[in-house]
Amino acid sequence: MSNVLTLKNVSKTFGEVAALHNVNFHVGDNEIVGLLGDNGAGKSTLVKIITGYHQPNPGGELFWKNERVERLTVPKARDLGIEVVFQERALADKQSLWRNIFMGRELSDRLGLLDVAKMRSETRRLMNTAMGFTSSAVTAESTVKTFSGGERQGVAITRALYFQAELVILDEPTMGLSLSETRKCLEFVEGIKKAGKAAIFIDHNIFHVYPVVDRIVVLDRGTIAGQFMKNELSLQELIDRLYVVAQTGHLESKN
Amino acid sequence: MSSAHEAPLSRRAERSPFFRWARTYPLQIGIVMVAVVIWVLFLIGSPRTFLSGDIYVSFMTTTPYFALIAIPLTLVVITGEIDLSFPSVMAFGMTAFDVIFTWTGSYWLGFLACLVAGLLAGYLNGVLVVRVGVPSLVATIGTQFLWRGVVMVITNGQGLGMTALEPTGLHAVLVGKLAGFFPMQFVWTILVALVMWFFLNRHRFGAHVYLTGDNIESARLMGVNVGLTKTLTFAVAGLLSAFAGFVVSVGLLFFWPTMGDGYLLNTLASVFLGGTSVFGGTGTIFGTVVASFIIGAINAGIVAAGLTSFWTQLIYGLIIVLSVSIQTLLAKRLT
Fold it and tell me: Are residues A119 and A184 located together in one domain of the fold?
């Protein structure tokens, strides 16, 4: 199986703190990878390197479809087809829905002139199809701060989908969602798989991660503690192993 | 039974064009209502003054002096920053004019030097805030004193007579009369407002101005170059401050090295009364322009009412405090 994304020997230090240490990580074509780890394990740092927000320390290499990428930036990552649904949703509360959907990637011509009509009409179309907004009180002009947690997540996810993502990264997507909203979010992850795309699914809740992923990677204190295909382990075995990771920093028990 | 009727009615109301329009432009509608109320009060209080055309020509003559700055300052405030250095930048630009005009004898070169000086002063504010990381409130208070000091040192506190420019085309273009009635500085204000409105609402730069001020971290994560956006708003504010300084000097045919100090309060009052949020992320050019003319009218009203100019400070201060308080309370209520 060829890989859509490969990281080789990636480290990241912030001042004295080593957030990631010699991480080797990959995502296969049409593969859903669950990324598990405690707070401070380095999950968010890894995501921010993959999205071009942080640069890895010298020596680390990043490959997109087996081609080396030099100095990845946020716009470059998006051009490649890497989309993120951030933990904090990365929304601008006081702005309209359409401005949020097209944030940082406004539809414009070479001179930077906006196609506002197109962005509004595309937003209206997405509201009916992808976001499932039915209330007539919500329009493309509505400000995002009036939305519920699920609606906000819908906006963040729809935004990631709209731009033909090859690899979708979901950073704690179920945080703060109700049961039915969580269900919808997990269906969305399954939808990515069906559409032939790849995803990295990060969540604290392994009950959310386990059912929808192909492979699970466990990160601990900045290193990959271990990884395995889902069909190698039952959910109960996974929980037991994670307990061992928390104790020893390794996925496999030493004794 | 009644509730079954009410639900579709309220939904219909929400769908009606007027309702949508009112919800889309609450700030603009609010500021126009404030303007109308104040105008009616003035009409009642002093009908002879406010029914003649002269007072409106007077508004169109003097309001642009600070409206020209309030318009780009709106962009700075929308990004979540503030620029308090513009009074000194007005004088700094004119000092550059003074030096180049005295040296070369060309007022066109002097005018160009004035604009370049303003642009550089604004750019420096941007660098201090974005690159060095100094809070804009502190950085621009610092540059306010810095540029005023530079002006005083270079001019030695001496003013410059501008009567040589009176017969020139530059004078006619900047402060002459259009169709024998409209002061050209008013025409320039409208032009600047239209260009700024266009960039704020129809250009990627403006979209990034709003996003940067609303949630800088989100904007950064989504690939907005927030540093460049902020630096550009500061540079434009500097450029137009110098331009306003030139318009004032050529309008009054004299440049005082202390020029600009009197514009701090009314410019800030125009931005905040116009509905631009102190917290960043929201604000309109339309609101600022209407608010500028309200502030200009209040000044005339104070004089017409026979009060001393000491009252202007009190009232402008009150307007700033009230408008930012109302904004803060509204923001709390809505979140």
Answer: no
